[in-house]
Amino acid sequence: MTETASGSARGSRTKGTKAAKGGLRIERIHTTPGVHPYDEVSWELRDVVMTNWRDGSVNFEQRGVEFPDFWSVNAVNIVTSKYFRGAVGTPQRETGLKQLIDRIVKTYTKAGEENDYFASPADVEIFEHELTYALLHQIFSFNSPVWFNVGTPQPQQVSACFILAVDDSMESILDWYKEEGMIFKGGSGAGLNLSRIRSSKELLSSGGNASGPVSFMRGADASAGTIKSGGATRRAAKMVVLDVDHPDVEAFIETKVKEEEKIRALRDAGFDMDLGGDDITSVQYQNANNSVRVNDEFMAAVENGTEFGLRARMTGEVIEKVDAKALFRKLAEAAWACADPGIQYDGVINNWHTCPESGRITASNPCSEYMHLDNTSCNLASLNLMKFLDDDGKGNQSFDAERFAKVVELVITAMDISICFADFPTQKIGENTRAFRQLGIGYANLGALLMATGHAYDSDGGRTLAASITSLMTGTAYKRSAELAAIVGPYDGYARNADSHKRVMKQHADANAVAPRTEDLDNVIWAAATEAWQDVLRLGEKNGFRNSQASVLAPTGTIGLAMSCDTTGVEPDLALVKFKKLVGGGSMQIVNGTVPQALRRLGYQEEQIEAIVAHIAEHGVVVDAPGLKTEHYEVFDCAMGERSISAMGHVRMMAAIQPWISGAISKTVNMPETATVEEIEEIYFEAWKMGVKALAIYRDNCKVGQPLSAKKKEEEKAEITEKAEETIRTAVEKVIEYRPVRKRLPKGRPGITTSFTVGGAEGYMTANSYPDDGLGEVFLKMSKQGSTLAGMMDAFSIAVSVGLQYGVPLETYVAKFTNMRFEPAGMTDDPDVRMAQSIVDYIFRRVALDFLPFETRSALGIHSAEERQRHLDTGSYEPLEDEELDTEALAQSAPLASVPAASAPKPVEIVPVPAPKTAHSNAELVEMQLGVSADAPLCFSCGTKMQRAGSCYICEGCGSTSGCS
Predict the structure, then answer these.
(1) Is residue 814 part of a domain?
(2) Domain encompassing residue 347
(3) What is the CATH number of the domain that holds 251?
(4) Burial 601-616, CB ≥16 within 10 A → b, else e
(5) What are the pLDDT digits (tens) for 491-528?
């Protein structure tokens, strides 16, 4: 059973359990004495108008909001729409970032002062200013519930992550339904382990068979779906865990596999089975993530090929033996088929548990980063790692470990203060959270930091740098926790768990001592981390600890966008080309700003960097970029595209940083559609060997249901109806077959003959047109007559020409054949097409320039030399007339007027390129530019394609998430 402390569900506001001993001395980090942080930045007014681009409807509108001029459009949109309190259009509505930050910071400062955290009024003021500065400059962010609730009249819930408990009784099961529902109602998520419930193979006291946990999952799933449909625009976030030795584990593994088969059958029969569709509610178990909790005994049996016992819940006796390898295979097959269940490793989880005397860790929150006692919650905050990278713009870089540690101390202090005034959804969760004071400090932008410093995500250097930062973060957090324990007392459960807590601290310190060091950049961080862990052991022995847990790695979805992070949580970058909304309306695509930083770090000159960036802007990848060494390609590997990071590369990164995370890591390992069951088995097995606590895999396109816009659904329904009518009609009348008509060119036809050289191979292209200027035929002649290449080019020319004459649009050919790569390839003698990946690539780029209108080829990323020069000079490929812009309609955080203030440094801008008109997010831009499919749902709120953030999805357009945030 979990140890509890007294206190009401509304939250105790009494002082610490021990008398204050002097209070904390707060050190200035960023602020200036006598100057408020607000007075050091330049402010401006913006209009925020957010629309659903699919139907043009306005989702949100608030004009004249005040933000610093260096905040991005997307960050302003998301913070205004998600976090400002009060009804829009009323005097109670917040109108600027100052009001939002003050609402939170002043609440924290007041609570810290009332609970004797600070040594003097001067320390109170410094704390308030430093916390304000850090939020204002996007150095860190609290989790979303803090922004939603703190400083408002509503309950001040500060936690996003919850773990519940359920026992083998109907009363407990019904309490589970109720508690889970109340958490969902508040927009948060919860997880729990069902393994205490008797299996369907065991008897009840009345003599009948028990229903088993899988049957009770149906009721909870229906409850979650109903609460979701009652007002929320996202699925309820929940995690269901079952131990691998539970007799119903096979039925649990197969639940979603069978439902996925049902979805496919109903879809093929014409039912609307998209996520959120009219008929998807008939399918069960869709509102939860499932995970199997495996222990070391089971994994050893898998390794040795032996049997494994399934145990009765009430007596613990083995009631059935199964082949461990066969069960493990079923787990992998289910994950291959539908991405569920994930896996959690009980041995390593409980080996790093600081409070085993108060109960085992049996479950996690929905995103799998928070793992602690049942009926508890965790308050999260994440640091923006790129804010600590010092870069002189010439390739000289350092990570400011000292400043990073000071910010960690500030943030962890604020997080602990929040528990003093926080409210909780149930009395049990409130009591336990106050008794154990679990915190979850973490970070975002790791992928961007690694690339900017010239490290491949899947490399020893990248993993070492990530590990050193993680060790310093958690070591500093526990150091401050021990300092707080001396002032306001250790957590209530510490005395009972002191030996175990100190044992885990030593495990962290020992792991830090033996961790590999690779270069000067991480050596400085390791040195600071080592000193921090020495202080942890020394101060912990003397004072104990204020918090039973200090760190997790969360998805950082909405708050990552609010901090303008390029990457979320522990994830690598999605792609090298970014979709960016512009102040004043419209959008552009820009090459990721970390690319030039990385190239400078790797020693490239500015002229080379300019050429490489231009190549990436056009092609979306670094492959064949002029002057880029092949050994540096890996630095620019991303989550999607031709050079995507391997599944095992993700697992290796998780394993590298796990020894310094108190909880776990929210991460889904993406795998291509071609991945095999054997590969999933390997990932699940190797992750256990490497000490990962939990993970899930997602194989592309393994899910059927995806949400579609209402308009798209209507189109599909109309199409289905039309097909049905056509089927009936053809049954009673003769089928009339339509064939396209070939439109031949006249005898006399205008044409252009172009000589070219691609990678040393010479040739001639003749392109003839119809009198109305539409391209009608293409002839290609290579210099070596009779060669296989010349013959294939002749045949290819005829095929393309016939297709054009039968009506195939030229832009279709251009889209299909540009970027096709084969030899000969390389430099050309054409100033408009300097590099070609093949002769076919060159031909269709040249044809596009000669015959396609500017708008069409620009959307395909094809521009002439003159247009590219204009872009470098003016930032635009084509001048736009004033009457072409409707800035009122396009406004997305457009500035209205400047508010006089001190000037702020302007961030370095990477030269933008007009974004394709059909892309509305980074995920959609990647699909267009790289020709790959981002297997993600569409946002229910704004229709934008979402992208993965940990084990959830985040909408870049409006900040909505598919899970707990």
Answers:
(1) yes
(2) 165-356
(3) 3.20.70.20
(4) bbebeeebbebbbbbb
(5) 999 999 999 999 999 999 999 999 999 999 999 999 99
